[in-house]
Amino acid sequence: MNTRLIMQKIANNVTSALGSASLMMMIKVILEQSLKMDEQNNTKSSSDFNIEIQTVFFLGIVSVCMRYLSAMCINYQDTKKSEKGTSAVNQVISTIGGATLGLMVAYEINSFIHSHNKYEVNYVANTHADFLSEIFYYLYSRLDPLKVSMALIGAYAGYQSSQFNDSQETSIDAKRDLAEYAVWRKILKGKPLPAGIVDLDAFDHNLDTLAKVVSDSNKKNTKRKTIRIATKSIRVPALIKHALEREDNLFQGVMCYTVEEAKFLNDQGIRDIMIAYPTVQYTDLNNLRELHMSGAQVSLVLDNLEQLQLVAKAMNGMRHPLPIVIEMDTSLRLLEGSIHLGVRRSPVRTSNDLRNILHASKDHPSIKVIGVMAYEAAVAGLPDKNPFKTMMNFAAVLVRKASIFHVEKIRAQVPEIFKSAGLELKIFNGGGTGSVNFTAAEEGLTEVTIGSGLLCSHLFDYYSNLQKIGLKPAIFFALPVGRMSDSKYITCSGGGYVASGAPGWDRLPIPISPPGLQPLGEEAYGEVQTPLRVTGLITPKLGGPVLFRPAKAGEIAERFNEYFLISGSQITKNVKTYRGYGLKSL
């Protein structure tokens, strides 16, 4: 067993023992004090005692927060699933230990000060040593046999709680880690690094898993849903086509983000393209007109009357009207919009908003509204099991539940609104990977959007519903070790592949092989180099690979011209990303 594991075990034993023992001591002291309240020789008033207890518990809360933050800092890089449960148990035990120890010490010091009225503030300030020695003597004098017994019981409980990390298991883990890292070194031997990697076996597993969620829901619903692929989360034509060519025909069409991308995908032989982000740029509308006139199956998402009028004007004179999809915003808006939970997308938020834009569209024969996209961002884009933001997980659970109810209520009205407007609802789109099981179960929708789940970047480990589904990581990147600045420190070349969104540790990549590598808080992931602390048993050699998981699946493609596809522990082919084809991103 290495030194780090021994120290962790000692820390677990100590904090658990202190937690159990001091909790019992605290209860005993509070009971003793409360019983003394009615005795005649009690010199404290009820108000004094209440103030003392409030002080104790205030300091205890501070202790809880400090111990909890410490636990998060130590364990924020612990991503091994087999250790998550035991790690959580030990964090709880350690938190109780720190909290109750803080409560006990604060209470005893308060008791000592109240029972020694002869000490004045100045006297205390000038006699630190004597004062502290009396405090320690006072605390020692209170250690009766019952307290010692409780400490021994706590020590035994702490010892039992830490046995998951014994030497035999550590030995097994070390052998497994060495074997896994040896496989990656063999796969990447002689390959230029940095490199983007997709595990095709895991990709196929995720295809099957997500397809099953939708197909199982189809058996229960009257309408059959298909799956639309969000291309921004993949950005590799070969992988997109691989999904669309499945025999079950569940994957039908793609959702892209620009007209330029739509034209590129159409040239690649991909059909049924929805451009999910509105545009009124002159060049975009001209290119869209040409694309539509060539017979491409393409539709454009819009969300207000001004966009509608500009697009309709650009499409005048065409033989067939351009298909339009209206996006409805499903964010929670409370207190007349002063509180906004979700993303800021469309101004079409109510049934009346949708009716108005549908009726206005009839004045423009060059376009035709064929559907609605109602993306539940406050569900699909909000992890509720995020180890980097544990304090926010409870709130995320509440927001997700409230949003599901809110979204279902909005979407339930859409079919009737289209019917009353005399329009056919051909496309009714919702969902994302983070809400796939909720969206697939909803009766009225015709399709579910899925993207990141196919590659399963590490942000998608942090959804309670996806943890039950069982997706596998399929997207990785490897960096070479370029420097070794100190013992137990390595520096990788490259690495600043930080995901978009609200800044935080969850947006950074995670080193996974060899295990036990941690980024430095003062540097994190750099533009051209990334230092890592080696806390495990394996130190990569100079030039050797370090494997990472990105936070998001699509954005990493902007760093590489091609990906290595691996299957069965070997590279089967190289495939180009959008960047490799020269397609620019937004």
Q: What is Rg? A: 30 Å
Percent strand: 15-25%
Main β-sheet description? 9 strands, mixed
Helix content: 40-55%
What class would the helix/strand composition place it in? Answer: alpha/beta
Average of per-residue pLDDT values: 80
If helices are DSSP runs of H or I spanning 4 or more residues, what is the number of helices? Answer: 18
Strand tally, please? 19
- The oligomeric state of the chains shown is single chain
How would you describe this structure to a colleague?
This protein is α/β, with parallel strands linked by helices and 586 residues long. It has helices at residues 3-36, 46-75, 81-115, 121-126, 128-141, 145-161, 167-188, 200-220, 237-244, 259-267, 282-293, 305-314, 351-361, 377-380, 393-412, 414-420, 436-440, 464-469, and strands at residues 195-199, 226-230, 251-256, 273-275, 298-302, 322-327, 332-334, 339-341, 367-374, 427-430, 447-450, 475-483, 489-493, 510-513, 517-519, 529-534, 545-549, 562-567, 570-576. The protein is globular. It starts with a helix and ends in a 10-residue tail after the last strand.
